[in-house]
Amino acid sequence: MGYRVVVVGATGNVGREMLNILAERQFPVDEIAVLASRRSLGTEVSFGDKTLKTQDLDTFDFTGWDMALFAVGSAATKDYAPKAAAAGCVVIDNSSLYRYDPEIPLIVPECNPQAIHDYKNKNIIANPNCSTAQMVVALKPLHDRAKIKRVVVSTYQSVSGAGKEGMDELWDQTKAVYNPINEVAPKKFQKQIAFNVIPHIDVFMEDGSTKEEWKMVVETKKIVDPSIKVTATCVRVPVFVGHSESVNIEFEEFLDEDEARDILREAPGVMVIDKREAGGYVTPVECVGDFATFISRIRQDSTVENGLNLWCVADNLRKGAALNAVQIAELLGREVLKKG
Ligand SMILES: NC(=O)c1ccc[n+]([C@@H]2O[C@H](COP(=O)([O-])OP(=O)(O)OC[C@H]3O[C@@H](n4cnc5c(N)ncnc54)[C@H](OP(=O)(O)O)[C@@H]3O)[C@@H](O)[C@H]2O)c1
Q1: CA of 14 relative to ligand 1 center, distance in Å
Q2: Helix (H, G, I), strand (E, B) or coil at 87
Q3: pTM to 2 decimals?
Q4: Fewer C-beta neighbours within 10 Å, C or N terminus of the chain?
């Protein structure tokens, strides 16, 4: 006996990837419903070798469904996730709405699987921000060995992190650079994204940082350890899929780069590709469609007492969103619901 699963936002970037991953990982599904807005009623989406028709979230009854994987924005989540949770369906949410609620667990299964039992508080589990998810997978095993004091991270985030409209804007603007008659003004992004980089993701906060940067700080503390200090600069780059991060880590204890490489080689969810030669590292184009978080360029930072630098790349639609949500569903099944 398997699960009755709902995918909410099934026509979007993350929702489609959730369906792919549920099928790829042979998640024990007895029945699956795919939901989106009324605009998409009847739109067909793929699930393995099946084609499913989307239903309207607004009129869907969640009673009797085991879990709902939400991949709609915060506004729609606010309207519908509490209804699903109240109907007894466990919500695994990709938006930022519930991540900072102390009663709601924020989970990366490689880092804090024990938090799963707190799902009972509100019948809701939160999935972290894409840039946090891939970073903490690398930080946690290093923190367990040498205790991290401080992290300085700069991100290079792909346009798919801004949904399907973000991908369309890069595509259309890139074509328009070659054919200026069809100039495309910035809409989803604040400035031209084609052949450019933009140091601004999400809204500005009072202290001059952006909310995306703030999310990396707060979520790392909630998932790994509240004592870790994080400072982030988040940048949008003209890459379709795959986020990259340059991460500088300061530890309490000395950690040799070779030992760090060995620890990361053994760490769940991590793949180390680190040859000190041309091409001996991973770039976002190569990580697309993969489950792993790739770590390259591991090296000592001799400018601080116990410092390391590394390069971290992952498919933001997978580890950064859909894969992590499906891993949470697997964890929930294994530890709590125990069907399948
Ligand atoms: N992309 C990433 O890397 C990433 C990473 C982590 C978290 N997330 C989060 O995941 C969520 C989805 O992101 P995405 O990139 O998949 O966005 P997207 O490609 O723009 O897709 C949005 C989905 O939400 C549906 N939707 C929007 N408003 C709705 C409403 N009022 N009622 C029902 N359905 C509605 C859309 O349905 P229609 O097609 O009918 O409009 C579509 O299926 C967001 O909360 C985002 O912040 C994204």
Answers
A1: 7
A2: coil
A3: 0.97
A4: N
CB-based contact 87:116 (threshold 8 Å): no
| Ligand 1 neighbours (beta carbon < 6 A) | 9-15, 36-37, 39-40, 57, 71-73, 76, 94-95, 129-130, 160-161, 163-164, 316-317, 320-321
155, two tokens: 């991100």
For residue range 219-241, list pLDDT tens digits in order: 999 999 999 999 999 999 999 99
Which is the closest atom of ligand 1 to the Cα of 73? Answer: 45
Place of tokens 């009663």: 103
Please classify residue 133 by burial: count the beta carbons closer than 10 Å to its beta carbon, then call 0-12 exposed, 13-18 middle and 19+ buried: buried
DSSP string covering 216-278: HHHHHHHHT-TT-EEEEEEEE-S-SS-EEEEEEEEESS---HHHHHHHHHHSTTEEE---SST
**For residue 200, what are the CA distances in angstroms to 23, 30, 134, 210, 234?**
35, 43, 20, 7, 7
- CA distance linking residue 327 with residue 330, whole number of Å: 5
Coil, helix or strand at residue 77: helix
* Residue 74 structure tokens: 């915060």
For the segment 246-273, what is each residue's pLDDT rounded down to a tens digit?
999 999 999 999 999 999 999 999 999 9
